[in-house]
Amino acid sequence: MDSAAHTRQRVSVYEVGPRDGLQNEAKTLPAADKVRLIHALMDAGITRIEATSFVHPKWIPQVADAAEVMAQVDRRPGVVFSALVPNLKGLERAVAAGVDEACVFLSVTEGHSKKNINKSVAEAVSTAIETAAAARKAGMRVRAYLSCVWGCPYQGVVTTNEVVAVAKQLLEIDMYQLALGDTIGVGVPSQTVEILQALYPYYPREKLGLHFHDTRGTALANALTGIQQGVTSIDSSIGGLGGCPYAPGAAGNLATEDLVYMLQGMGLETGVDLEKLVEAGELAQSLIGKKLTGKYLQAALGTREKRAAKIRAQS
Ligand code: HMG
Ligand code: MG
Fold first, then answer.
1. In the annotation, is 148 catalytic?
2. Is the CB of 49 under 6 A from ligand 1?
């Protein structure tokens, strides 16, 4: 990509902190705090927010308050709220709660599919097709997630052929985006190139989104590689909120501030205010009660603290 192309290109940031981030934190926030965080994200100019998830609350207790969160958030023009919907029951709840965009989700691998949603991959494909069709009928936009694209916690290596085989089965879904998930954060850039190149004959680059967990520190490198390959939609989580259920203590999703800092520095348009994003990250950190892993956030807070200490010393 040449520098002229950089200045023209816009990258859409899809925020997953309130859902993927918080679902993986040990501390469950009250709905009112989740809503404060969503408002802070909107204040920073984020317009695509995965607000919650209508999965079974017994499976993921952190999102048991999904309807409450949706009832309390301000609706602002231009902001789209999405939520995970695993099946028709979840969709029914999401529609009642006023969600704009339904995210169906499934895995490439049998092991993860069974453990995550209690279904084989074939069953998950038909459930996703059925749920997505019902969501379209209800007037919602549809996004589909494919998990374990770069590797699986049960199977280990996942081949690009396996990814393509499942992705092809989703072609009949009337979705605006297929989000590819590095669920356990094992991917490296060369693999990202290989996967995207193999999918492009079926999914044009405008139809793909990338969702990286930063478990092993490769999320930003993978996101950059995706952008260089023409992808224009990247998922991230404020402050790097979250973790990996398969690697206790590991980092969460790619941090939104790290992504936005890099994109802005490269002259790519995001529509996001980085300073206000830091405020949202600071809020996330104080609500969750521990230092988050986002690097830009920690650098910004550290710089601010140093300045404050200097002023204190002078007065
Ligand atoms: P199941 O137990 O197989 O469900 O769970 P079932 O269809 O057999 O139904 C059992 C009971 O659950 C029934 O109630 C249903 O009505 C009820 P009963 O008749 O016994 O009273 N039920 C529900 N209740 C509320 N909401 C629902 C719902 N569905 C059924 N939606 C199910 C299957 C899919 C529901 C369950 O396994 C589940 O909720 N799993 C969610 C797991 C999850 O949320 N994982 C994390 C999200 S995926 C992810 O994070 C990856 C991603 O970030 C991308 C990446 O990183 O790769 C997206
Ligand atoms: Mg995820």
1. no
2. no
What phi and psi values does residue 149 have, to the nearest 5 degrees? -70, -35
Indicate if ligand 1 lies below 6 Å from the C-beta of 240. Answer: no
Distance 24 CA to ligand 2 centre (A): 9
pLDDT tens figures, 113-136: 999 999 999 999 999 999 999 999
Domain extent listing, the chain: 3-314
Tell me the pTM: 0.96
In the reported structure, the alpha carbon of residue 39 is separated from the centroid of ligand 2 by a whole-number distance in angstroms of 22
Q: Give residue-wise pLDDT tens across range 277-301.
A: 999 999 999 999 999 999 999 999 9
Q: Cα(289)–Cα(219) distance, rounded to whole angstroms?
A: 24
Superfamily designation of domain 3-314:
Aldolase class I (3.20.20.70)
| C-beta 20 within 6 A of ligand 1 | yes
Q: Which residues contact 120 (CB under 8 A, 6 or more apart)?
A: 110, 113, 114
